[in-house]
Amino acid sequence: MKGDQKLSCTFAKNDFMTNNDIRQLEPQAVWQKFADLNEVPRASKKEERVIAFMKAFGENLNLETFVDEVGNVIIRKPATSGLENRQMVVLQSHLDMVHQKNNATQFDFDTEGIKMKVEGDWVKAEGTTLGADNGLGVATIMALLESTTIPHPALEALFTIDEETGMTGAMGLKGGVLKGDILLNLDTEEDDEIGVGCAGGVDITASRTYQEEAVATGKTGFKLTVNGLQGGHSGMDIIKGLGNANKFMNRFLLDGFENYGLQIAEINGGGLRNAIPRESVAVFCIDEIHTEAFKADIAEFTETLKEEYKTLEPNLKVTLEEAPLPEKVMNLGVQEGLLKALQAAWNGVYRMSPDIEGLVETSNNVARVVVKDGEIEVLCLTRSSVESSRTDLANTIRSVFELIGCEVELSGEYPGWKPNMDSPILKVLVEKYKKITNEEPHVAACHAGLECGILGQNYPDMDMISFGPTIRGAHSPDERASISSVQKFWHFVQEILKDIPVKQ
C-alpha cells in the first residue's frame, strides 16, 4: 500500500539487506508486514508512532478505523461473500515490544528500526530483541485485513498498547466498544499449543533513601560486572531455573561485605520487570590490605558459580576490575539490610500447579536493582494463576523489604484468565489442528500475562482462545522466530476463519 510505504520511509533511515531478505520469506504477506512494523520504534508507553502507523494502515484500506481514548487501535472489515452469517471474530495482538539489547550493541530504539537476519529456520535481530512478541501476531492481522482473497467472517482487529509493562491498553478498553463474539489472541509462543488460561500479576516496587558516607583512606575501588546470562521471559521461561544477574551479583556483594568489609557505591542491575535479568554492574571499595585476597576470593567464587550453572548458563561471565575510588558509599547499616533482603527475596518458581501438570502456578522475578545517590529501588513482578497464592508471595516479598525500612508499593495488578474447557472456539481449533497436522495440540494454560483475562472483565460473554507461531527467547536479544512455524501458523489461521460458528 502506498500509505504503508510512506510511513515506512518516515521511520526507517536505512534499508538493510537482511531486512529485504526477510520480506522474501514465505508467507510473504506476513513477513512483509512484520518488516514494515519493525521499522517503527514501539517501546511500551512510547507507542505514538506505531499507533499513527496502524491508524494510517486501516484508513488506507478504506476500513472503519478508530483509536480509543487510551490508544488502542480498532479496525473492522466486513465478511467475505458466503460467510456473512458467521460470528464476528476479534483478532487481537499488542503493538508494543520489549526493548532489550546486548551491552556491546550500539542501537537507539527510539530512532532506529530493528535490524534482522536469517539463521537457518530462524529470524533473529542484530544484538537486540526482535519484536516477534507480539509483532508476528500484529503482522498476521495486518495481512488478513489487506487480503482480497482469503475467506473470513466479519473481522474486528484489536491492536492494544502497553501490554509488556502494565497491560494498560487492555485495562483501558471499555465495555461496548467491541462488537465481536469470539476473540483470537495471537500471542502464544509455541505453535502446537492452544492457550485457554494464563496467570495474573502484580508489580512490586521497594524503595528508600539512605545516608551516604565519605570514603575513608586506605581503600581500593572496584567495578564488578555479571553478564552473559540467557535472560528471557519472566513468565514463560521462569520454569527453566535460569540465572538472575541481580541474585548472582548479590551473592558476590554479600560475601565481600561479610569477609572484607565491602562498601557499595552503586548497583545497576536488570531492566524490565518481565525480563529475567541478564546483566548487573556494581561499584564499591574495600580496604587496600584485602585487595589480593579479595581478588582471589572473587575468582574462586566465580568458578563455583560457573560450575553450579554450567548447564543452564554456559556463557556466564564475571569481570572484576579496579576502578577509580568512589567519593561516597552507602551507610553500612542500610547496606547490610539491603544485601540480606535481596538474598531473602524469593526469585523463581514459588509453587507448581497441583491441578495442571508442568504448569507454574506462582513465581517472582527480582527484575531490577538500582542503588545510586542515596536512593534504593528494587522492582519485582509476581505472577500466579491463583489470586490467593499471588497475594501470599507478594506479601512475603513486601515484608522482606519493609523490614529494612523500604516503602513498598503493589501496583499494576491484573487478573488471570480462567480456562473454559467447554469453549466452542476451542473445539474448532482442536479439530482444525488435528486435521492439518494429524497430531493432538497441547491445550494448556500458561504462566504469562495474556490480555484475555483483562478483556474478559468487560466482555464476559466473549469466547476467547490464544495461539501463535513458535518464538524463542522473548524479551531478550536472543529472541528468534521459526520461519517454518510461521508458515504453519498462517495456514492454521486461515483454516480457522473458514469454520467460525454460525451466529446464534
TrEMBL record:
It is an enzyme of class 3 (hydrolase). Its EC number is 3.4.13.18. Belongs to the peptidase M20C family. It comes from the Bacteria. InterPro entries: Peptidase_M20, Peptidase_M20_dimer, Peptidase_M20C. It comes from Leeuwenhoekiella blandensis (strain CECT 7118 / CCUG 51940 / KCTC 22103 / MED217). NCBIfam families: aa-his-dipept. It catalyses: Hydrolysis of dipeptides, preferentially hydrophobic dipeptides including prolyl amino acids. This is Cytosol non-specific dipeptidase. One of its GO terms (molecular function) is metal ion binding. GO terms for biological process: proteolysis. Its cofactor is Co(2+); Zn(2+).
